[in-house]
Amino acid sequence: MRALQLFTVLIAVTATPAALAAGPVAGTLDFNALAPANGGIPVPGGFGGFQWGSSVHAMTLPSAPADAFVAFSGTAISVRRVDGADFWFDGAEFWSRRGADANGSFYFVLSNDGQVVFDGRADSQNRMRFTGTHAFMTSGYSGPIDYMAITFRQGGDDWDHLAFDNFTYRATPLAALPAVPEPATGALFMAGLGLLAAGARIRSGRAA
């Protein structure tokens, strides 16, 4: 019995935090790692743990070559986790890249498991209005999603001057392959097995 108890303790000790379920972790993603990008470059798939739509590009200004932000080359604007898992979108900074006629608007459309859970187009109060001044905006929806889209009305002509940065979210860390036990951990595990076997032999001898 003592050997079995010790073996159970050894198993508990060798369990690592990676083996335990982790909760959502808050993060803010900027795009400075992609700087400089004067002419704009596609945001690589997997950047920051997300897949970015084909219209999502990183861009820098000549006056700030180390400060990258997101601009768009069309209306196919979407974000999802690279592993397809849920995340929580907490907002981002949006602004216009225009010096004049900098007013524009867009809508968030959020989905989970193939179902739309928030559609900003359904209510005019959910219209996101942006100007040349940086402003933090969020949908107001607080539940988990696995797909986020930014859409436009009025022919979609505001995509060409919308910019965003500091994408704020919560997400469970990306799944990782089980870690290979370190030699010491393996030795402890094997020692536990040996103790268990020894205990079994002792009990068998007593019974005889």
TrEMBL record:
UniProt feature coiled coil, ranges: none
Organism per entry: Methyloversatilis universalis (strain ATCC BAA-1314 / DSM 25237 / JCM 13912 / CCUG 52030 / FAM5)
Keyword GTP-binding: no
Phylogenetic classification of the source organism: Bacteria, Pseudomonadati, Pseudomonadota, Betaproteobacteria, Nitrosomonadales
Name the record gives this protein: Ice-binding protein C-terminal domain-containing protein
TM stretches of this protein: none
Assigned keywords, A-Z: Signal
Signal peptide location: 1-21
Keyword flag Signal: yes
One Pfam entry name: PEP-CTERM
Domain of life: Bacteria
InterPro entries tied to this protein: Ice-binding_C
Domain Ice-binding protein C-terminal: 179-203
